[in-house]
Amino acid sequence: MARLSPVERVVLALTALCAALAGVADYAGWTATLAFGLATAALAGLAWVVSLATEQLGQRLGPAATGLLQATVANLPELFVVIFALNAGEVVVAQTSILGSLFANALLVLGLVIVVGSRREPDRVMRFHPRLPNDTATLLLTTVFIIVLVGLSLASHDPASRHVNAVSAIGAGCLLAVYLAWVIPFVRRGGPRGGGFAGAGAGGAGSEAPGLNGPRMTLRASLMLLAVSGVGAAFVSDWFIHSLRPTIHRLHLSQAFAGLVIVAIAGNAVENIVGIVFAARGQYELAIAVVKSSVAQIAAFLFPLVVLCSLPFATSLTFSLAPVYIGALLLMAIAVWQITGDGEATPFEGWALIALYVILAAVTVYE
């Protein structure tokens, strides 16, 4: 029997309602703007539902596996959006959706987590174990290396530039291998400290993570909720893509803004809420783990996986990006490593990350 809080029950009901209305809007031919708004709200709700089901399922696997499983399955909505966007020939939306998830988590969400966490400490310093941030920085820089190399090859008209698809496929395979080489030992040792994520920073040492005291749902209920929400995410993603082009045309938005900002924030609502809540409670290890695990997965797992999955499509995804996004990715990786690599962060560093995201979003408005 599921022991859900009243708030969780309300969110589940609202998500089901938004998903149902999004389907009606798509098939009944409602205005594209309304259909887009409903699909966006449904995507955000489904991301939360997937996270809830995954968290409950992961209680039987331990803290490290729970965090990893949550980050993996919570990216399902973004994965479906990218697949349907590629199927519809919307390469820009597909690319910017993945990049948007990276930027939203590594800049906006991480910045908010740092601001909230550091402000509750007497010395205004949020402390956490640096192992996971440094591991994430390594995965990010490996991904960026491939992207920069492909970009330089295309810009210089190097002979290899005629084989971008092949280079991207090889790079994707290498990234997945590197990710597996990191994630398997990470899960086996139970997290960055080798003992899970229960330890917090200076403000919450020894506290336990909410939700890690045992599952509140049966195994059958968790699996059913996960399956239903996963299928729902697939349908809603399709409806989202159908209404995307007419909506951005009507609202005079760029495809880059839709992918980098709207899709990213909707699809990463889980990390937005969960990470900030953990930081507010002083559970800094968990807060950082939720955000950093998602960043690592998007960069070194989701992105290369979609590259390989898109090979049979008429329009395939590669690591070839616009120069402005190549530069933004490189500078983001450096900034995140510089701020979190020492295991300490202050409010102004969090605000700096948020400012970087706002500046990038402003650029996409005029793309």
Characterization of the model:
With 367 residues, this protein is mainly alpha-helical. Helices cover 74% and strands 1% of the residues. The chain has helices at 6-28, 32-58, 63-73, 76-87, 91-119, 131-155, 164-188, 219-250, 255-267, 269-280, 284-309, 323-340, 347-365; strands spanning 126-127, 344-345. Strands 1-2 form a two-stranded antiparallel ribbon. Mean pLDDT is 82; it is low at 195-212.
Summarize this structure briefly.
Helices cover 74% and strands 1% of the residues. Helix 1 crosses helix 8, helix 3 crosses helix 11 and helix 9 crosses helix 13.
Could you outline the blueprint of secondary structure elements for this entry?
Layout: H1 6-28, H2 32-58, H3 63-73, H4 76-87, H5 91-119, E1 126-127, H6 131-155, H7 164-188, H8 219-250, H9 255-267, H10 269-280, H11 284-309, H12 323-340, E2 344-345, H13 347-365
Antiparallel strand pairs: 1-2
Helix pairs in contact: 1-2, 1-8, 2-3, 2-8, 2-9, 3-11, 4-5, 4-8, 5-9, 5-10, 5-11, 5-12, 5-13, 6-7, 6-11, 6-12, 7-11, 9-13, 10-11, 12-13
Structural class: mainly alpha
Q: Shape from CA axes?
A: globular
Strand content: under 5%
In whole angstroms, how far apart are the ends?
50 Å
What is the count of β-strands? 2
Give the count of helical stretches: 13
Biggest sheet strand line-up? 1-2
Q: Unreliable segments (pLDDT under 50, ≥5 consecutive)?
A: 195-212
Helix content: over 70%
CA radius of gyration: 20 Å
**Roughly what is the average pLDDT, rounded to an integer?**
82
Largest sheet, in brief, is: 2 strands, antiparallel
